[in-house]
Amino acid sequence: MSKNNSEVSKKHKSYKEFDAKSAQKQIKSQVKVDNLTNAILIELEELNKQINDLKSLDDDKTKITTYLHDNKSKYLYSSNQLVELLNITTSMKCWISMIEIIGPRLVDPSEGQLQLCDKFRFADDKQKVEDILKAR
């Protein structure tokens, strides 16, 4: 009987270890890595152009995320600049997508974490933002 208990205990322990390792692998595979070679901090004029272009996309998440993917490559952003980009829409799903795209390009992710998390009401959304910024 104790042999069975120890076998069950071993299996249970290895299941927990596997589960944690599996979760870590899954998180790492979801983290996007950007090539920041030669990237520069976006200037106010270019940021304003991006904001105006994004406003013209009628709050469409797909159009907004596609635009950001296509236009982010040579720029780094501050957390304040990301908040300015987020302010073009009221969609929390869109905000999460925008943070996923721009988050890896933030020059000050830890300073902006509170400011970005405060935009969200729900703990799950706040946690997603924290995870994105910590993965940077």
Furnish the topology, listing elements before pairings.
Elements lengths: L1 H29 L9 E2 L2 H12 L5 H11 L3 E2 L2 H8 L5 H11 L6 H9 L5 H13 L1
Parallel strand pairs: 1-2
Helix pairs in contact: 3-5, 5-7, 6-7
Task: Explain what the structure shows.
There is one protein chain. The chain has 136 residues and is mainly alpha-helical. 68% of the residues lie in helices and 3% in strands. The chain contains seven helices and two strands; from the N terminus they run αβααβαααα. Strands 1-2 form a two-stranded parallel ribbon. α5 packs parallel to α7. The longest helix is centred in the N-terminal third of the chain and has 29 residues.
Summarize model confidence as the mean pLDDT: 81
Write down how many β-strands occur, each being a DSSP E stretch of 2 or more residues.
2
Radius of gyration: 20 Å
| Helical residues, percent | 55-70%
N- to C-terminal distance: 49 Å
Q: How many helical elements?
A: 7
Largest sheet: 2 strands, parallel
β content, as a range? under 5%
**Helix/strand-derived class?**
mainly alpha
Order of helices and strands: HEHHEHHHH
Order of strands side by side in the largest beta sheet? 1-2
State the shape: globular
Low-confidence stretches: 11-16
Considering the chains and any ligands shown, give keywords for the structure.
136 residues, 7 helices, 68% helix, two-stranded parallel sheet, mainly alpha, globular
Provide a brief overview of the structure.
The chain contains seven helices and two strands, in the order αβααβαααα. It is mainly α and 136 residues long.
